[in-house]
Design goal:
Blueprint: E1 4-12, H1 17-27, E2 33-35, E3 42-52, H2 56-68, E4 73-83, E5 91-97, H3 100-115, E6 129-134, H4 141-148, E7 153-159, E8 161-168, E9 175-183
Antiparallel strand pairs: 1-3, 1-8, 2-6, 4-5, 4-7, 5-6, 8-9
């Protein structure tokens, strides 16, 4: 067993039919566009990178303390965009409406985890759902898709739990294992 684990805290997002259709469309754009597997869709609230395995228990307890004090809520998955910008994308994402509770959870997690010695993220948290990564020059049709879908709704997701995941990077794609779960009040 490795001494360090690559981990992050995230809320799972179900693959709604419109999201599945978008992932299929992105997958048809060639090798430059690598869609996320539908079973791996999530909104990252805190990325740690490699941490000592023995610290994951304290992170998990902190996650549970923060999350169990919050109530479950819905987010609307809406809009397609790209980081850093549509003209030179490296990540394709779906945006979120009604995501203020997610922002509050991320801020509270940052505060509590900073007290445990973890470095605070330097940029403000903007909830988004990564749909694909761009590995090379994307086809020109991607820019048209981004423009066409900038206000498209992809459904609603119930956020009723947040997990601490271990992430194993493999050739066929990442494998995520839940290390701890915090359930939000219904």
């Amino acid at each position: 067993m490795a001494d360090n684990v690559r981990c992050f805290i995230a809320a799972t997002i179900p693959g709604t039919p419109p999201l599945r259709d978008m992932l299929d469309a992105l997958g048809e754009m060639g090798r430059a566009v690598k869609p996320v597997a539908v079973d791996n869709l999530h909104v990252t609230l805190k990325f740690f990178g490699d941490v000592p395995r023995e610290q994951t228990a304290a992170i998990g307890r902190t996650l549970q303390e923060v999350v169990t004090a919050a109530e479950a809520f819905d987010v609307v998955l809406k809009g397609l965009g790209a980081f850093p910008h549509p003209g030179r994308p490296s990540v394709i994402w779906a945006g979120m409406d009604n995501a203020e509770p997610l922002v509050q959870l991320a801020v509270e997690l940052e505060d509590r985890l900073e007290a445990l010695g973890y470095v605070r993220e330097s940029r403000p948290f903007h909830p988004h759902l990564t749909l694909a990564r761009i590995k090379a020059r994307p086809p020109e049709s991607l820019r048209g898709l981004l423009q066409q879908c900038e206000a498209t709704e992809f459904g609603t997701a119930v956020i009723d739990h947040v997990d601490l995941y271990e992430s194993e990077l493999r050739r066929e794609g990442p494998r995520y294992t839940v290390l701890a779960r915090g359930g939000l009040e219904a």
